[in-house]
Design brief:
The protein is of the alpha+beta class and about 400 residues long. The chain is built from nine helices and 13 strands. The strands form three sheets. Strands 2-3-13-11-8-9 form a six-stranded antiparallel sheet. Strands 4-5-6-7-10 form a five-stranded antiparallel sheet. A two-stranded parallel sheet has the order 1-12. Strand 8 and strand 9 form a beta hairpin. Helix 4 crosses helix 6 and helix 7 crosses helix 8. The longest helix has 26 residues.
Length: about 400
């Protein structure tokens, strides 16, 4: 291009022609109706029309823009409440727990969420910090572990829920340890446990899981001694579900120690199936198909051989230490199609038992043919009730 005041040369003509208004569109000098303005007008006329006729042959392609009617904003799950009034605290987290630079691994998230689909069931699990802890900047005392051991139809799914002692500053650590230790014990014994579940050996399951649970509580007591804490301060309630990934196996096994809830939604009605404090040697739960409910020590039990009539030795899961302070609870039942099994910590069990509106609302929401997604399940679990502000942890199993 020439300098100012100099006469333009022939090489400069292309620049003038490019930006000269009377000149045709440089992008398509030989095609009328295909300028940038034409394309913009075409796009403007197309947006918002759902049933536009197909463009004639040879016409420029319509812009890849969907009609506005297709962009309908979906409602976001929002925390709600039931009962005679709103809860005292805010619905969303307020303060974070105190962090120590050298102990960042001890921090726990406000909320955890998980889910899966195996065999004939869909699993949803959530653990959320309570309103009170959110307001005071305290950590979530509930812990949640979801784990799959093995693969294929031989896989075993464990869901563990633990709640630390309310008055202990290390409650969240004890709850996490309880989940991890029972998870490790289950994982190491998964082959035998999976066989017992599919074969319906309830007596063997009860005694074996009792040993594993006692061993985990023994490790909690040992950890308390290492930390210089009292055993009652470094402990937790522990409630677990064991589920087979085999589609042909509908046996659902619950076991644990401490308070919480075990409920079943059947035909739109909640059933409280929390095992009562058992008598020594008792095995609770509905009979597994093909197997009776007699204790395994009786002549009709699982441990007597068919030919010799001699007692088999106990299965060596893990030798237990001293028993925990609270009794062991166990239940093995066969699920029916359409059932929803709910295992939860006391933070949800108490309002479910104490506020009928919450039970009715959850029954209505979970009566749909398909279980909720992860976000929907979390919103359901977080339905708030005035007077109940503890952590909430819930595990639900929808039977196909």
């Amino acid at each position: 291009m020439s300098q100012q005041g100099e006469r333009p040369t022939r090489d400069d003509d292309w620049w003038n022609r490019l930006y000269d208004e009377p000149a045709p569109d440089a992008a398509a000098p030989d095609r009328s109706g295909d300028s940038l303005d034409d394309r913009f007008d075409s796009a403007s006329q197309t947006v918002g029309r759902r049933d536009d006729p197909a463009p004639p042959t040879g016409a420029p392609p319509a812009p890849l823009t969907a009609p506005p009617e297709t962009f309908v904003p979906l409602p976001r799950p929002r925390p709600g409440h039931v009962g005679d009034g709103p809860p005292t605290y805010e619905a969303e987290p307020t303060a974070l727990p105190t962090a120590r630079p050298d102990e960042l691994g001890d921090l726990v998230a406000d909320t955890v969420l998980d889910g899966a689909r195996y065999g004939a069931y869909v699993l949803r699990a959530a653990s959320s910090r309570g309103d009170s802890a959110r307001y005071r900047g305290e950590p979530r005392r509930d812990a949640l572990l979801t784990a799959r051991f093995g693969s294929g139809e031989n896989a075993l799914v464990l869901v563990a829920v633990a709640s630390g002692t309310r008055t202990s500053e290390q409650a969240h650590l004890a709850a996490a340890d309880a989940c991890h230790w029972i998870g490790g014990a289950i994982g190491r014994s998964r082959h035998r446990l999976a066989e017992d579940i599919r074969a319906g050996r309830r007596g063997d399951l009860k005694s074996g899981l009792h040993r594993l649970t006692d061993r985990s509580y023994g490790m909690l007591r040992a950890r308390a001694a290492e930390l210089g804490a009292q055993p009652e301060d470094y402990t937790a309630t522990l409630r677990c579900l064991l589920l087979s990934a085999d589609p042909a196996c509908r046996t659902r096994v619950f076991f644990g120690v401490g308070h919480g809830g075990l409920f079943r939604l059947r035909d739109g009605v909640w059933q409280d199936i929390e095992p009562a404090v058992p008598e020594p040697g008792a095995v609770l739960g509905e009979p597994v198909v093909g197997f009776g409910s007699a204790p395994s020590e009786t002549p009709q039990g699982d441990r007597l051989t068919m030919d010799l009539g001699t007692v088999e030795p106990a299965r060596p899961y893990i030798e237990p230490p001293a028993p925990p302070s609270q009794p062991f609870r166990f239940r093995a039942s066969v699920a029916r199609p359409g059932d929803t099994l709910l295992l939860c910590s006391a933070g949800l069990a108490e309002p479910l038992r104490g506020e009928q509106a919450l039970a009715e609302e959850l029954a209505g929401r979970w009566a749909a043919p398909e279980p909720p997604g992860l976000a929907g399940f979390l919103a359901d679990v977080q339905l708030r009730v005035k007077g109940y502000a503890d952590d909430r942890t819930a595990v639900a199993v929808w039977e196909a």
